[in-house]
Amino acid sequence: MAALFFKGCDFLRKLMWFTVGFASASLIGALCYGIWLLAAAGMMLTVAGIFALISKKYISVRLIVVIAIGCAIGFGWFSFHDRTFVLLPRALDGKVLSVTIEATDYSYDSDYGSAVEGSFCFDGRNYPVKAYLRDFEKIEPGDSVTGSFRFRLTTDGGREEPTNHRTEGIFLLAYPMTDATVAKADTISWRHYPSVWRHHLSHRIQELFPGDSGAFASALLLGDRSGIDYELNTSFRASGISHVIAVSGLHVTILVTLLQTILLRRRLLSCLLGIPLLILFAAVIGFTPSVTRACIMQSLMLLAMVLKREYDPLTSLSFAALVMLVWNPLVILSVSFQLSVGCMLGIFLFSPHIRNWLQGLRYLQSGTGKGLANRIKRIVVTSVSVSTGAAIVTTPLVAYYFGCVSVVGVLTNLLVMWLISAVFYGVLLCVLLSTISMGLGAFFAFIVSLLIRFILKTAEFMAGIPMAAVYMTSAYMRVWLVGGYGMLMAMSLQRRTQYKLLLCGLAFTFLLSQTFSWIEPLDDQFRVTMFDVGQGQSILIQSEGKAFLVDCGGDNGKEAADKVADTLLMQGISRLDGIIVTHYDNDHVGGVEFLLSRIQTERLIVPHIEDDEGIGKALAEKADSGVEILSEDRIYACGQSKITVFAPFSFHSANESSLCVLFQRKDCDILITGDRGAEGEQELIQNHNLPDVELLVVGHHGSAGSTTEALLAATTPKIAFISVGEGNHYGHPSQQVLERLDSIGCEILRTDLCGTIIFRG
To answer: For the segment 737-755, what is each residue's pLDDT rounded down to a tens digit?
Structure first.
């Protein structure tokens, strides 16, 4: 492998190492933005000059020179790009302007209305923007939205934290200060055709394919994952084939292969038609980083075939990454970009070595035979080597960004990847046939749906296997992952990599880490975990093998459910003894529905209060167990401990009638009051004999109207937990509550400062 990196200093390898330096500078600039960028560029040029003086004797020194030059130019380009494209958006941050935004895509529903991407003209230049509107009126490409908007910068240097929009080249978000006026476009500009085609294709696919099959087909062909529900997305995540429903290099390769087959592999014709087709495909998808990278690489491959030049994959990857970084250096922060480049890097660097080792195994030797058995062996070797090679580089990224590592991913890929090309071609065929006859297209769509159902069922089955995936909520699994890469590095330094020894070491340490993850929580007599779910609440109470969850909601219900489910599964818990819903506000109940699709429960405990939106009924249908609607106090055994749930005192007052939970074990008492305010707390004090508590979960996320002096006097807590989102616009926790807690000498722990908090006894 070392020979791959130090293969002389020809132009191609120079380009690769130059890109490494350029990308490093882009990453440093994106993470540590400042006026020092030009100074850093000068410093790196100085370093390059110094090493250039001694580069004639040592190849490795020449590479340092190339990398340093790449860094210098990268720092300079980042500064130039910032001054050219971000300087004015930075000046507009926080300002309110009356502008007209021309939509460049279709609007879609957001949490607070609708959102649409577009551009607006200011000072003679057009700037891309994403506008969040208050209503749900459908906006189409070319429509104009006029109004008074407050702008927010998405990059560093603004009043608020940067957002991921910067990786897409969108440096401003717009929020309406008044009702906006929408003017429909008379004609559609050619610039909007890709968005229109993507929209119509998506609708046609939904008409042809039923339910989950339609959602999968749309994701496979167009990258539109909006129809993939939480359960299906979780199955793909755990089974390790999420890349299938994220349009990437795989799909671009399938498309180019189809074109070359149709054109009988005529090189010139494939190049002349293929490159425009790739540009069009990337435009329809939306120039996502993974597709853009793949299209550039495939275009280079087509050109190499016509020019009869050797195609070097690493150089092609370097060139593609460099082009994208020059266009927008901030794309280096894109998860899609990192995974796409990392995946290809893993395939190029590691897959050939893994393939050679597999082919050396007696039961996988296939030679050049054309028999069915030999073909199957070659498919197995290719699939395993490619999947494993890609996983070696991308696994740390997946673990960091998504907190999940699929253990069965290689096997799942082996089972389904051979079908993906057929399904991709089948979806295309169905769409084309539907232009002739919807009935004919629907008939073939039914056949393709059978293949899709096989893929979905396989993903669901593989995800359901015990230990199919591990989650980084476990410190032991984080240690295992780091240790595994340590073993890989140690093995790679040897002349001959001992793959069997490496696999045995990984398997043994994995089982050891998993065992510790299961056993460690059992060492505590009891444990209370307050999850960091942002502006919301989710609390896990465990004692002697029993586990109750109080609420599950936050800034994002799905993310809250994932945090809880990942933690439970890593402890070997797939069924709770109870889920207690204090009341029906979304920040307390928004994740329960999603959690129930992953974790079962013995009982679902909800309050007997008004429920105009039917949330309690929806949860009851989702749960696989009995639902207890509390109108009076109830006590539940939890090992040697007990959990008392105090019923609501009013049917009509949601917050004030939140269920309250009192956990008691020997000399430790813990009280959770939901979102009760002064009135609800007073009712709790008057009608119940509250003990002095060691731990109090502060009510209503630290709202000034909760955790009153009366409650504190009645319970005298020693420690206070506050579940609150960082920088929330409610101003929680209020200064009054903090002062009240401080006045009684209470230790305060907050999720916005401490993250997830664990109280052990």
So the answer is: 999 999 999 999 999 999 9
